[in-house]
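User: Second chain of the day. Same drill as before.
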Amino acid sequence: MAKILIVEDDHAMAIALRDGFSYEGFQVDVAGDGEEGLRLARESDADLMILDVMLPKMTGLEVCRSLRGDGSGLPIIMLTARGQEIDKVLGLKLGADDYVTKPFSFMELRARVEAVLRRSAQTPKSRNGGTHFFGQLMVDLDHHIAEKDGVGLELTPREFRLLDHFIHHRGEVVTREQLLDDVWGYDTIPFTRTVDTHIAKLRKKIEDNPADPRLIVTVHRLGYKFVG
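Assistant: Same format as last time:
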């Protein structure tokens, strides 16, 4: 069974979640603040993190930013208080995989956990496979390696999934909703702006001139097209 890391400073909630997931057969670690949560996320072999936004020492958003900055692909479900709409947006922009608004039922959280774990367990190799060249850009989809002008690129797991998706749909117009469904795993989500944010970051790494992209081009009012 999967291992879950719960980072929650509300002791009663942390214990309730620990006991609930343990009863369901999960292995569970618990951290009471952001610094401890970040340390355990880096040192343990957790399969998923449940991360509260409001934490002492480091906020959940800071923890998420640090992990994604490390290149960690650890699935993250963020817990946000009702009305903290901006935290949901920021969490998704920083690379969180899902969020649950407090108060919530354990069954709802468990369903979200299982859905995110299913997505993360989907075949780790690309649907295309092989090595692809686009000018000075080289992408090895089997080994998750990308180079530009012979220099390795530090792509986050989500950036690599975006690139994989674009290569798989080369020459096709891909909508933001399709990207959210395939790369993020959401059927519907109001924050399509997060797609633009991630693509802007990806362009900075793979384009010669991100302000005038030649690989990932914007199709007005529709989405994007990979024309490499």
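The longest strand covers residues 76-81.

User: Great, on to the next one.
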